[in-house]
Amino acid sequence: MIRLTFVTGAGKLGRSKYDDDAAKTVTSSLRELGYTDDRGASCVVECAGSFKSQHDTGKNLKTIVVFPLIKNTLAEMEELDLKEKGPAILEEGSPQQLIAMASINTFEKMLTSKCPSWSQKKACVAVIEEVKEVVQSLDNKLMNGTPLIETEQEFYDTCDLSSLDSKQTNTKNEMQKQVEEGKITSSEKEKLLNQVMDKLQALEGDIKDAPDNKKPKRLQKLSSQKAKLTERKDTLDAIKASPPQRLKHQPDIEKLRKEMQPLIKLEKETNGRLLSIKEISAISRKEEIEDDIIYLEVSISIFSFH
């Protein structure tokens, strides 16, 4: 914002230098142009299109201070600034942004508190991989001689691949540790067993073909891999699965499920006949409860890894 000051009069000693109607002429012209008189106006964008009368006692001058209408409003200026800088590389508050910007120490704390389950840690690894691809794409852009826009440069300067590699390695180690300690759910155990069985099946096919191709070293390598996978399968078989991680909003979910039980019963009893207004209202409430439960179930953590 800029400020324009019109001198329209003075005190006794300088009054004769100015027309008596100067102030009136300026203010009436401003009002015709859509300006408003605002005694509290100041030099900020929000005061665009206003004016105020002042008496500068130090200089003994009477003035009209004008804050002109400007082409770009505050919102337009912010939009213009965004266009110049470019869009954000990662959405503010998203898992990608939280992981990319966190220090190693902060990330380790986040991993413990926000990703307690093996599945959440696996999802975290996938998110880190996505961020690494973004950083690599910017690196390739620079290597090709293409300058980065402001938001890209800021992101590139604060997020490096070595830090992401460390976070990814740390997460994988924690996943392995969790399996070794048997802290996985039945569905996670089943998923891991299926992965091992698929790899064993593929190896057995390779081992069967190896003698025909006369590759003893390859056969030895495949046999070693099979032994390790078999050992891993036995380890997984021996794990007693843990119950699923208690949800963040578990008490609220249980309360809603309890409220829904009589509504489910009512829905079954009224199936196939015309409903009263009270019954329609009750069944509608059941649908609202179902939506609330879904919302609370997915609100597991700040990362929202599922």
Which outline best applies?
elongated
Strand order of the largest sheet: 1-4-3-2
**What is the count of β-strands?**
4
Counted up, domains total 4
Number of distinct helices:
11
Low-confidence stretches: 300-306
Provide the helix percentage. 55-70%
Q: Work out the strand percent.
A: 5-15%
Helix and strand content put the structural class at alpha+beta
Q: Largest beta sheet, briefly?
A: 4 strands, mixed
| Rounded Rg | 35 Å
| Helix/strand order | EHEEEHHHHHHHHHH
Distance between the termini: 48 Å
Q: What average pLDDT do the residues reach?
A: 83
Brief overview:
By secondary structure, this protein is an alpha+beta fold. It is built from 11 helices and 4 strands, in the order βαβββαααααααααα.
Describe the structure.
This protein has 306 residues and is an alpha+beta fold. The chain contains 11 helices and 4 strands. It folds into 4 domains: 4-67, no CATH class; 87-180; 186-238; 250-298. The longest helix has 26 residues, at 118-143. The radius of gyration is 35 Å and the shape is elongated.
